[in-house]
Amino acid sequence: MSEITDKKQFQTSSDDPVKPDTESSRGRIERRKIALNVLMQMFFAILIFVLINYISYGNYQRWDLSSTKKYSVSEDTEAYLQDQLDDKVTLTMAFLKSSKIRNQLKVLLEEYENISKGKIIFEEFDPIINKNKSLEISDRYQTTIDQSCLFIEVGGRIKKLTENDLLDDKGRTFTGEDAITSAMLAATESKPKTVYLIAGKGKLKEVNGRSADKEILGLSTRHFFELKELTLGNITKIPEDADSLILINPETDFTLSEVTVLTKYWEQQRGSMVLLLNPATKMPNFYPFLRSLGIRVDNKYRVLFSETTGIGGTQKVYSVQSKLLGGNPVTSSDEGAITTFAGQTCPISVAENNENLVSKGITAVPLLAADPKFWGDLEHTEPYPKRSDTDMIPDPNPIYVAAMVEKGGSEDSAVKIESSRMVVIGNSTLLDPIPTRLNVELVMNAINWTLDREERLGINPTNVISFRIDMSPEKYKTLFYLIVCIFPAIAFCFGIVIWSARRS
User: Fold this and answer.
1) In a domain, 3, yes or no
2) pTM for this model (two decimals)
């Protein structure tokens, strides 16, 4: 009995040291497996993260979720950057952090860089914080950085835009894309664009130092074309460097010799014109030239409507509300928008799809149509105008107030043809005294179209919107205690409750 007991004790005593070793060895193996598994998971997680970032670096999608799409570029700019821009471009943004448009401009330029697929190099810095970089850029471009500015370098040619150049004259509308694309186009053009303002035909209205010609001068500065004056009576031929002509508010007719000069320019020199006509001016020498191109200026009429006043009478309303039409390069970007022409406006009849004109390669297209409540009144001097059989009634055809003409153009954008282009507007006061944004855009788009700058069309400004919440001191104090004291205290107490529950 004792022998058996001893044997069992021996067996037990001999087995005891072995069992812990086995279990310990198995535990180490299991821990190693777990560690290896964790390491492998971490390795593959990091590998997947690196691969995703590597792939997304060159292949990713950006979405502009802002209400005004202020961080996006137009389709025209996108097409220009991807298909038409051949030179390398360096965009250097030297903007103060305090600038109200800094962030918007930075995101926009990053979008330029992304869309260009390597053609654009973008860098930015604060000239106050990074003074060494400021000195470097000043030496490189031989200029001083005395304010927030943007440098555009293309093939050794430099264009400088200040913060004011990226805003309208009121400082409320961001025109960055417009100004930047214009500057890039100007830097890549073989020669500067030159526009001649036809002088000597009348005095332009000026209010508070502003007038239509000064507005055009401001546009020339912002959109990089040279504006010169031209007196037709002293020449026999339009200058060779004339890329376009502008006529604003003529108070006298052209002479027959001047019409001959304009006709030769149109037919032989790839003529381009933008005409803002005065309805009150009779032009029996010049208007036949326009009729030969499919444009009839019906200046015997005035576009107006009559409305009843609060005291029971009626009054004439000359300020024409017009809708911008689509299907053309000048107004398509704002198709459907409504603008207003101040002053008097005359109707313009357009010979669309005229077989005789088509055979000559001439295409006439309306640009703006007056609201249906307006009509073309023949007896517009009468105190209380009424529609009559002698008037132009907007039924069934609308009353047009602006049109475009192209001679020798091609519908195929791949075919480059030097065509003659003209925009005619039956109003001479749409740029003064204080023009609307759409009116300025209309004139600028007309000029760019006649300058053969299709890449500049369809670029609309965006409003600089600042959101601010005004609160009384009491409401501010309440909000402060809620955020700083009450909410953190609630979260702390909740955490203690959860901790206590787990310990119990």
Assistant:
1) no
2) 0.70
